[in-house]
Amino acid sequence: MLEFEKVVPQVERMGRALAAQNVTLNERMDDAWEFFKSLSDLDAIHARIQLARQRDAGFRGAAPLNEPINRAYPLPATPARATIIAADGSQIYPNTHVAALYYLTNVGIFVYHHGSDALPEQVTEPRLFYTDQYLRDKQGQLINNTAVNARRTVAELQMLARESWERRHIDYPLLALSDGPLLFWVGKDVPDGRQLENEYLGAMVHLHDTHAAMQRDLAQMASLIGYVDRPTSAFVVSLIHLMRLEDDEVRRSMLDTNLELEGVIDRPFMFKLLQPGERSALFVQQSPQNKRYHDKGASYEIVFFYLNVGSAQDYHLARVEMPMWVARQPEMIDVAHALVYDQCQVMWRYPYALTRADELAVVRAHERTQLNELIEIELRRNEQRVEHSEKLESKAVRHGRKRYAHRFGR
């Protein structure tokens, strides 16, 4: 039970403190914005980033690719025809309180035919994992949710690559659209992390092969895009911080934080810079993970731009990521820029195809209940003992949850 009479005074103090903090922060941001507008010398920026690399100073900000960073880039013409293939996934995590241990991933693919009357295509791929090979690590411990998420992410890109390859014969641009960042890496808490990273990169190579085949046979292109909605990254702010330092200050202790800009993110700077439909310059995120992608092959380093997908009345920022083999070709950048913005106008500031892929992939509560009941029936059919967690049963009683009785034919 939450006693609101004790919480309300704390909320009021919180409001006053944040308001005072924002006044100071806005003053610092205004000063940083004026400095950002002066950063027009790409050679000087690249030289400073190279100095940070030479000194192993731990710079984790944005490095411009080949465009001035303080300019906005206008919305290109949208191609007359294109195929957009979007992928998203969901999962059911392992649960020790149900009749049997398992986890499930469900990947949804939505194919949208831009500029055509052809009906969209839908593909789903649910996969059930129930053996110790998938459920436990080398020490016999049950895998955690992070491991399931990582495996689902790999499955999403693999399925996106497969569906793109099957459509490599189309005579117009293909855009493969993934939900979230493209830079994939896992920590030590994922038991098969290195294998998963290799499989993910293999799917990216497969998508690159689709582009190579389309370019060779049809003079067309296939692009891979990762869409990040409402990004909270501070890559450009970190670059501003680096450029404000003196040469002798470029060291790890000065780059561990953004000092007076700590806590500031890129979004307000991009809203000042970008009108609806406009994108930022192309940037490469400086990180050990991205360097590993580069070391695997220069074509797979991840590049990004910011895109204002909103309207004059309601700005909304996205970060659009792509591998270097897309970023190298201006016409591919233009196609991705135009199609992503167009998709965000179909729905409310979010790509329509990704919205539909999410709807295909999501596993709802009643579906999870049905699956658990189906598993119980199959266990009994195979003369297996079925036990329920006392904790789960008591929660169901306390919270008044309904149980759905569904019959499955024998």
Provide an overview of this structure.
The chain is α+β, with helices and mostly antiparallel strands. It folds into two domains: 259 residues, 2-Layer Sandwich (Nucleotidyltransferase, domain 5); 34 residues. 45% of the residues lie in helices and 16% in strands. The protein is built from 14 helices and nine strands. It has a nine-stranded mixed beta sheet with strand order 1-7-8-9-6-5-2-3-4, with helices on both faces. Strand 3 and strand 4 form a beta hairpin. Helix 4 runs parallel beside helix 5. The two termini are 47 Å apart.
Topology (elements, then pairings):
Layout: H1 4-37, H2 42-54, E1 62-64, E2 82-92, E3 103-114, E4 121-129, H3 132-135, H4 145-165, E5 174-179, H5 193-218, E6 222-229, H6 235-244, H7 252-255, H8 267-273, E7 283-285, H9 288-296, E8 302-308, E9 317-323, H10 324-327, H11 330-346, H12 352-361, H13 365-381, H14 390-398
Parallel strand pairs: 2-5, 5-6
Antiparallel strand pairs: 1-7, 2-3, 3-4, 6-9, 7-8, 8-9
What brief labels describe this structure?
410 residues; alpha+beta; Nucleotidyltransferase, domain 5; nine-stranded mixed β-sheet; disordered C terminus
Short structural description:
The chain has helices spanning 4-37, 42-54, 132-135, 145-165, 193-218, 235-244, 252-255, 267-273, 288-296, 324-327, 330-346, 352-361, 365-381, 390-398, and strands at residues 62-64, 82-92, 103-114, 121-129, 174-179, 222-229, 283-285, 302-308, 317-323.
